[in-house]
Amino acid sequence: MPIQRELLAIVTATSLSVAAQTAMAHEDGHGEDAPKAIQQYGLPLTLMNTIYEGEITAKQMKQVGDIGVGVSNHLNGELTAVDGVIYSIAADGTATVAPDDLQAPYMSMLKFEPTKTITLTNIASFKALQNAVISEVSSINSFYAFKAKGTFAYAHLASAHGVTDEDVDFFEYLGSRQMYDLTNVEGTIVGIYTPDYLGTISIPGLHFHFQNGDNTVGGHLEDIRFETMDFEIQEFDRIDVVLPNVPEFRSKKMQIIQPPSGAGAGGTDASK
User: What span, in angstroms and rounded, lies between the C-alpha atoms of 1 and 11?
Assistant: First the structure.
């Protein structure tokens, strides 16, 4: 059995809770006393197996977290949750509040209760940001959530423009995304760090999204530059995953494919 398949089997058996009691699958809000965990709907593998539709709604997402990152059905817009509001990002980067009935094939949400703040200076690339952040965490084998707010000298963002061919290869799709730059912009970045060994469970590395100051522009963060920024951090040792209950997922044989890292997923040199 290939090592990735073994890892997936071990992690699925020991670390994941595909649980009916989680509020992501229910609207009644039960499970509030459960251990703190990242609440995730779907897997990177669902997208890479060209399953671009799910049934989780924005309303359900908001019940289990106040920050998060994901993408809407048919890849028709990046999704970013900031301070309990979920924003849908159009192909041109325009951000609007997502309607409660918007659905997604993949979304990670969490209740952000930071336990540590670090100050980073003179960050000139996403790679530099990742190196600086990783040097500050207590274990590179845990999950972490991050939030930072301030003025960014430069942000290179990617959008999700939607698919017309539901069978289009995910990597081909990533290469076709629209990219856009913001300079000297106030904003907020939120996201999750996943260690590489769990890369088939959640997007490996730093997966960050950006919202500008008035939440009118956003996107998937590909590259970044700033002088000084405070990053709030929260560590997680648990992720609860809900599998999509849609016909294509239930019937399709899933292939084990290594997902791209959180930044540079479309192949930008600057972020690598």
Answer: 15
Predicted TM-score (pTM) of the model is 0.86
* CA dist list (Å): 212 to 23, 94, 149, 152, 217: 29, 10, 9, 10, 6
Beta strands in the chain (DSSP E): 38-41, 56-57, 67-71, 78-82, 85-89, 95-97, 103-104, 106-110, 116-123, 143-158, 179-194, 205-212, 218-236, 239-242
Question: Which residues contact residue 187 at a Cβ distance below 8 angstroms, ignoring those fewer than 6 apart?
Answer: 149, 150, 152, 155, 210, 211, 212, 213
Contact (Cβ atoms closer than 8 angstroms) between residue 213 and residue 16: no
pLDDT tens-digit readout, 183-199: 999 999 999 999 999 99
65 within 8 A of 81, measured Cβ to Cβ: yes
Q: Is the pLDDT of residue 205 over 60?
A: yes
Contact by Cβ (8 Å): 222, 268: yes
Residue 33 has a pLDDT of: 55
Instruction: Quickly list DSSP for 51-90.
Output: -----EEHHHHHHH-SEEEEE-GGG-SEEEEETTEEEEE-
pLDDT of residue 261: 82
Residue 178: closest CA among 81, 89, 48, 260: 89
Query: Which amino acid type is present at position 104?
Result: A
pLDDT in tens, 87-97: 999 999 999 99
Q: Is 56 exposed, middle or buried (0-12, 13-18, 19+ CB in 10 A)?
A: buried
Other CB atoms within 10 A of residue 25 CB: 20
- 61 neighbors 68 (Cβ within 8 angstroms): yes
Q: How far apart are CA 262 and CA 208, in angstroms?
A: 7
